[in-house]
Design a protein that fits this description.
Elements (H helix, E strand, L loop, with lengths): L1 H23 L4 H13 L4 H11 L5 H12 L11
Length: about 80
């Protein structure tokens, strides 16, 4: 059971790190959205992804993080939603 928790924690930290790198490199919002989709495809739940992004709101570019949260929450066009 501890290995499963550790795996999910590593996945969460990896998402946070990847988003921070993307923002630091001024990646386009569409590139960051694709990153979210890759984590979803690897089994990350909407709740976990939301929690990770909310952690970043105080650390990084809040406007970008809020845009990414819109994709996760579905406050965007149907084509842009990360979760249905």
């Amino acid at each position: 059971m501890d290995k499963i928790k550790q795996k999910f924690h590593q996945q969460q930290q990896s998402l946070v790190d990847d988003i921070q790198k993307g923002i630091a490199l001024n990646r386009d919002l569409s590139v960051l959205r694709e990153l979210l989709l890759s984590y979803k495809c690897n089994g990350m739940t909407q709740d976990i992804m939301r929690d990770c992004l909310n952690q970043l709101r105080v650390i990084d570019d809040e406007n970008t993080i809020l845009d990414l949260l819109d994709f996760v929450e579905g406050f965007c066009s149907l084509e842009q939603k990360v979760y249905s």
